[in-house]
UniProtKB/TrEMBL annotation, chain A:
InterPro entries: Haem_export_protD_CcmD (IPR007078)
Lineage: Bacteria, Pseudomonadati, Pseudomonadota, Alphaproteobacteria, Hyphomicrobiales
Membrane topology: Single-pass membrane protein
Protein name: Heme exporter protein D
Role description: Required for the export of heme to the periplasm for the biogenesis of c-type cytochromes.
Keyword entries, A-Z: Cell inner membrane, Cell membrane, Cytochrome c-type biogenesis, Membrane, Transmembrane, Transmembrane helix, Transport
Compartments, as annotated in UniProt: Cell inner membrane
Biased composition (Low complexity): 58-69
UniProt GO cellular component terms: plasma membrane
Species annotation: Bradyrhizobium hipponense
Automatic annotation (TrEMBL), chain B:
GO molecular function: heme transmembrane transporter activity
Role description: Required for the export of heme to the periplasm for the biogenesis of c-type cytochromes.
Organism listed in the record: Bradyrhizobium hipponense
A single GO BP: cytochrome c biosynthetic process
Protein name as it appears in the record: Heme exporter protein B
From TrEMBL, chain C:
GO biological process: cytochrome complex assembly
Purpose: Involved in beta-(1-->2)glucan export. Transmembrane domains (TMD) form a pore in the inner membrane and the ATP-binding domain (NBD) is responsible for energy generation.
Chain segments annotated as transmembrane: none
Source species, domain of life: Bacteria
Keywords per UniProt: ATP-binding, Cytochrome c-type biogenesis, Membrane, Nucleotide-binding, Translocase, Transport
Name the UniProt record assigns to this protein: Heme ABC exporter ATP-binding protein CcmA
Species this chain originates from: Bradyrhizobium hipponense
TrEMBL record, chain D:
Keyword list, A-Z: Cell inner membrane, Cell membrane, Cytochrome c-type biogenesis, Membrane, Transmembrane, Transmembrane helix, Transport
Record flagged with keyword Zinc: no
Membrane topology: Multi-pass membrane protein
The name this protein goes by in its record: Heme exporter protein C
Length: 69, 222, 200, 263
């Protein structure tokens, strides 16, 4: 197939490569962002900050908080 | 030296974080350049002839408009008082701030130039020439613009007033920047002569800018 | 160490704020500058800090570091906190420590002393006015300066914060420091009063 | 406090976690089929093999508009129903849309180079996409410029909707401007008269890229929800510090002054 790309093969290959690169960057961004956000959530969790604790003065046990993520 | 490095690091960090304006300058540059063909028409031959001028004007406006808050933000939150009192000479601190601004807001303009050159139908040589002249000339824009930014603090007014004060000062840079790029593209002048004048203008502003800005700031801190 | 001002005159915006002001402060001493609004308390501090130029008179620090000017040996704590909301608490503090230079102490300990030790990674934008003031105080602790110029230092601080701050000022005086504070409220430590601009 | 309602996003997170793997798998499968089909598609009698660029150019050009449509609907959600997920959806879509628009521009100019002999022609379609790209970047800049997401969301929603109304006007003006200057018509990209052998791979690729967008968008929305959660937790943390320091000011002060003395 590669032989049939004609005189402008480099343009075609560049287009596909650029598309692959941009999509890869998008995926990388999404994955890395997810990792850093969950890490920060875990750190906050470890330091005892939970989503309910700010509202009541006493420390509620952290059962309700991060079940998902 | 650590003091200046810390100042540069802090300013770049703020410029790149949420709320910082470094990348908006590039976006402005992009928009101004894209607008030009709508005004002059999409004739590629015409655009490539006007290209260096359009790019230079765009870069000039972009780098001046982002300079507006160079000292204003530090003045408003009281940082400027502490900077003025510190053991680092105010002139050096000003130079460091301008350098940080150039790294965060000026350098991206030069990096964006090849893409915009493509839009304006500039060939490789022409784009390279414009990028090179911008690299040599934008420090002059930043360091003369800094004087206006310092005056804006003294006068408690920024924005357009600053642009009106500084734009005339940047005319020589514009003349020799565009002349050097045109010389590289079409001749007949040699590239070297206007380019060395451009470099000289940058070097002069590197010296004059910080002193003038510091002098203006010293009287503006009340 | 002794900080003396003599015959100080301050003119701002064409108006004479005060004239012929003399003051004198020795190491280990706190001066509370009092006076009604507009009497020039802030102006006096800014004169000492070198941020205003006196229209007359002189200020001299005897017995300080001969290589440094007076402003370079002062900490100035103004109304504005000199903090960047985009930076974290620790970044704000370490910037000032690096930039101001001179003898410095551990930033983490200073943060602990003002009760911000758990906040070091938070963006300064999330801090309340009192917390911002505490962070400014941490700057005074992290970088050593013999003279502290404080402008209404206790505003925005709660009772516990004011107690904490009183302790910090006493430590500073005990180590031979010198404090000049413009204040309406009692400073919370033993201090000599300097009244400017007539009676309140 | 402007905390977003956490009940809904929590359910959304659970849903996302369940759906994302399937979506990703479907995207990969469809992309593979589409790529294979476009590889075996015949050459165009006029354009030769360069017609293959169309198979990624057109889906990206389609997405550049589709994503703006998604953001417009989300913006309506922000402004009219004040739905917390709408802000998140609008914000998460912007960078992805910008990336697809960028790809549409890039592949368009790579396609144009063999046809026109230049990378860039101020052709009406490409120019419109370029303006769209600038608007995406402006929108992203707006999201970045404001620290408080709720405030940024309303501003961005207004801008998105104004953009949606303005885009046809811009397209019309650019068309008019273009014909004014260039009466000789430029080669039209991907005209309506497409052979079936091109149409099917193109459709498959378009659906695959749309699925790719949905997958990325959901994942980005999840990240955005988590980011807001981190932010609100940090605010809670900040509000609790004052509380804890009141209790702990005494002993800490002693330790600090000791430390300062020895340093």
């Amino acid at each position: 197939m590669m032989t049939s790309l004609g005189p402008y093969a480099s343009f075609i290959v560049t287009s596909y490569a650029a598309a692959a690169l941009v999509v890869a960057i998008l995926i990388g961004w999404v994955v890395l962002d997810h990792r850093s956000q969950t890490r920060r959530l875990r750190e906050l969790d470890r330091s005892g900050i939970t989503r309910r604790s700010g509202r009541s003065a006493t420390d509620t046990p952290r059962t309700i908080t991060r079940t998902i993520t | 030296m650590t003091a200046l490095a810390a100042l540069i690091r802090r300013d770049i960090r703020i410029a790149l974080r949420v709320g910082g304006g470094a990348l908006i300058g590039v976006l402005f540059f992009l928009t101004v350049v894209v607008l030009m063909p709508f005004a002059v028409g999409p004739d590629l031959a015409l655009l490539s002839r006007l290209g260096p001028a359009i790019l230079w004007l765009g870069a000039l406006l972009a780098s001046l408009l982002t300079l507006d808050r160079l000292f204003m933000a530090d003045h408003e939150d009281g940082s400027l008082d502490l900077i003025a009192m510190s053991r680092t000479p105010l002139e050096l601190a000003c130079a460091a701030k301008a350098l940080a601004h150039w790294l965060a807001a000026g350098l991206p303009l030069i990096i964006a130039t090849p893409v915009l050159g493509l839009l304006l139908n500039l060939d490789m040589v022409a784009t390279g020439a414009v990028a090179l002249t911008l690299l040599a000339g934008t420090p002059a824009l930043t360091f003369t613009g800094m004087i206006g930014a310092a005056l804006a603090v003294t006068l408690h007014r920024g924005g357009l007033l600053m642009a009106v004060l500084v734009l005339p000062l940047s005319i020589p840079v514009l003349i020799f920047g565009v002349a050097a790029s045109q010389a590289a593209i079409v001749g007949p002048m040699s590239f070297g002569a206007p380019f060395s004048i451009l470099c000289a203008l940058s070097l002069v502003s590197l010296v004059v800018g910080p002193f003038a800005a510091a002098a203006s700031l010293k009287h503006g801190l009340d | 160490m002794r900080l003396c001002g003599s015959g100080l005159t301050c003119v701002r915006g064409g108006r004479e704020v005060f004239t012929g002001l003399d003051f004198d402060a020795a190491a280990g001493e706190a001066i509370a500058v009092v006076g009604r609004n507009g009497s020039g308390k802030t102006s006096l501090l800014r004169l000492i800090a070198g941020l205003l130029i006196p229209a007359g008179g002189t200020i001299a620090l005897a017995g300080g570091d001969a290589e440094l000017t007076l402003p370079e040996q002062c900490h100035y704590l103004g109304h504005r906190d000199a903090l960047k909301p985009a930076l974290s608490v620790a970044e704000n503090l370490s910037f000032w420590a690096d930039f101001l230079g001179g003898e410095r102490f551990d930033a983490a300990e200073s943060l602990a002393a003002v009760g911000l030790d758990h906040a070091s990674d938070l963006p300064a934008a999330f801090l309340s006015a009192g917390q911002r003031r505490r962070l400014s105080l941490a700057r005074l602790l992290t970088v050593h300066r013999p003279v502290w110029l404080l402008d209404e230092p206790t505003t925005a601080l709660d009772v516990a914060g004011q107690d904490m701050f009183g302790g910090l000022m006493r430590d500073h005086l005990a180590r031979g420091g010198l404090i000049i504070a413009a204040t309406h409220a009692p400073l919370g430590i033993e201090s000599r009063e300097l009244r400017i601009g007539g009676t309140a | 406090m402007t905390l977003i309602d956490l009940a809904n996003p929590t359910r959304f997170l659970a849903l996302t976690a369940r759906v994302l793997p399937w979506l990703a798998a479907a995207t990969v499968a469809l992309l593979a089929i589409g790529l294979y089909q476009s590889a075996v598609a015949p050459d165009d009698y006029q354009q030769g093999a360069t017609v293959k660029i169309m198979f990624i150019h057109v889906p990206n050009a389609w997405l550049s508009m589709f994503v703006w449509g998604v953001m417009s609907i989300a913006s309506l959600g922000t402004l009219v129903w004040r739905h917390p997920l709408a802000d998140v959806a609008a914000k998460a879509a912007a960078p992805i849309g910008a990336a697809f628009t960028f790809l549409a521009l890039l592949t368009g100019s790579l396609w144009g180079r063999p046809m026109w002999g230049t990378y860039w022609e101020w052709d009406a379609r490409l120019t419109s996409v370029l303006i769209l790209f600038l608007m995406y970047l402006g929108l992203m800049a707006l999201w970045r410029a404001v620290d408080d997401p709720a405030r940024a969301a309303r501003a961005a929603a207004v801008l998105t909707l104004v953009g949606a109304i303005n885009l046809p006007i811009i397209k019309f003006s650019v068309d008019w401007w273009n014909t004014l200057h260039q009466p000789a018509s430029v080669m039209r990209m991907g005209g309506p008269a497409l052979d079936r052998s091109f149409l099917i791979p193109l459709l498959v690729m378009a659906i695959a890229f749309t699925l790719l967008f949905v997958t990325l968008h959901l994942a980005a929305m999840r990240n955005e929800i988590l980011r807001r959660r981190v932010r609100s937790l940090q605010m809670i943390q900040a509000s609790r510090i004052a509380f804890s320091s009141e209790l702990g000011a005494g002993p800490r002060e002693g330790s600090a002054s000791k430390g300062a003395g020895t340093a």
